[in-house]
Design brief:
The chain is α+β, with helices and mostly antiparallel strands and 83 residues long. The protein is built from 2 helices and 2 strands, in the order ββαα. The chain is elongated.
Amino acid sequence: MDATQWRVLLEPDGGGTRITQFFRILRLPIWYDRLIWATTPTHRDRGPALRADLERLGVAAARGLRQRGLGADRATPLPVAER
């Protein structure tokens, strides 16, 4: 019914990496949008869920660094910044 395009952009940022998530709704009937809005409150603001995704990604990346013996001093993920 719907088609959403998600993109993740990784950019160097000082000594770390800035991760930016984008989405674009390509196709979604208006009646379906209204149904989702009325029945799924968590879909109205995906900010907290996206933040949790980024935090889990940071933890996984830090774990990978520690397992490879790389960046031990940077193995703790930095807080997710809001824009």
